[in-house]
Amino acid sequence: AEDNGKINPDYIRSFLFENKLMPSTWIVIRIDGCHFHRFCDVHAFEKPNDLQALNLMNSCAMAVLKEFQDVMFSYGVSDEYSFVLKKDSEFFQRRASGIVSAIVSFFSSMYVMNWKSFFPEKELKYAPSFDGRAICYPSSEILRDYLSWRQVDCHINNQYNTCFWALVKSGKSKSDAQNTLKGTQAREKNQMLKQFGIDYNALPAMLRQGSCVFRLKEDVVIHDNGACVKKVIVDYCNIIEPSFWEAHPGIID
Ligand code: ATP
Ligand code: ATP
Ligand code: MG
Ligand code: MG
Ligand code: MG
User: Fold this and answer.
1) Nearest Cα residue to atom 8 of ligand 1
2) DSSP SS3 for 173
3) 49 lines ligand 1 (CB under 6 A)
């Protein structure tokens, strides 16, 4: 490196670190909105759940599945989405930085591109961003445990947030609402919701269960160029129950 005229490229490359993901494992890329607490405030999202904001997230996830064939399934809630790549994927030679950055930047671009369709009356005030990470799961059982964990989290957070905002809308301060909910069990929260006239189980499935995006193998779409691809759909399914995976063989086997 002493002589500027003859820098050895191997020497420069020797600083590049390996970040290849373990072979033959399910790769999950989880993205999450950066500082969406603030983003929701600035864009006056409805609380506890802005349906249009969730539909916008879902449209971006659908675009990801259409763009990246190795993504088999995705699950989203709030400002996050998990994308599952097939076990034998060779996308970016399984380099974590390549896969994460490609998915997270595509998703962010779609979010901005699709904004107007979901919020025709609302101006996008600043550029949203997402962070992303890659995690490998060595078996479909563990992958399903991961997805179940996200769906349980969705339920717990949604139940809490629904109670919290019912208390706030009834006139309590945010800190009073927080104190009222401290240490309460699911049963007490359901009781509380009943008193506010909210039947939790009657809330839209998207809020209670989150969103799943996947391909329907029996349904194909023919593109202008003649290419024939499986239809990508969004559905609000219970992915903790084995019945979902039994009804959709081939997503993860
Ligand atoms: P970080 O950058 O660490 O992720 P964050 O502010 O994004 O910080 P999260 O834990 O990711 O924090 O939480 C996301 C926030 O965005 C929560 O407050 C959640 O209620 C809110 N949020 C996300 N989507 C919606 C939505 N569709 N409607 C209303 N609020 C939403
Ligand atoms: P990959 O997805 O593998 O990166 P790529 O098509 O993006 O594929 P690169 O090796 O990154 O390939 O090369 C970028 C290409 O874009 C080159 O062909 C380069 O000439 C072209 N390009 C980039 N910036 C400009 C620019 N400002 N004006 C004209 N051409 C550009
Ligand atoms: Mg985060
Ligand atoms: Mg976030
Ligand atoms: Mg989040």
Assistant:
1) 35
2) coil
3) yes
Distance, in Å, from the CA atom of 126 to the CA atom of 160, rounded to the nearest integer, reads: 29
49 Cα nearest atom in ligand 1: 28
Confidence of residue 144 (pLDDT cuts 50, 70, 90): very high
Q: What does the pLDDT read at residue 2? A: 56
Residue 91 and residue 99 in contact, taking contact as beta carbons nearer than 8 Å: yes
User: Is the Cβ–Cβ distance between 163 and 192 less than 8 Å?
Assistant: yes
Phi, psi of 182 (to 5 degrees): -55, 125
Nearest by Cα to 77 from 211, 204, 205: 211
Q: Which amino acid is at 230?
A: K
Residue 25 is predicted with a pLDDT of: 98
Residue 4 CA to chain centroid, in angstroms? 47
d(CA 101, CA 85): 14
C-alpha–C-alpha distance, residues 49 and 86, integer Å: 31
Q: Band the pLDDT of 177: cuts 50, 70, 90.
A: very high
Please state, rounded to an integer, the average pLDDT across all residues of the chain: 95
Q: How far is the CA of 41 from the centre of ligand 1 (A)?
A: 10
- What tens digit of pLDDT does each residue of 196-222 get? 999 999 999 999 999 999 999 888 889
* Euclidean distance between CA atoms 190 and 178, whole angstroms: 16
CA–centroid distance, residue 63 to ligand 4 (Å)? 20
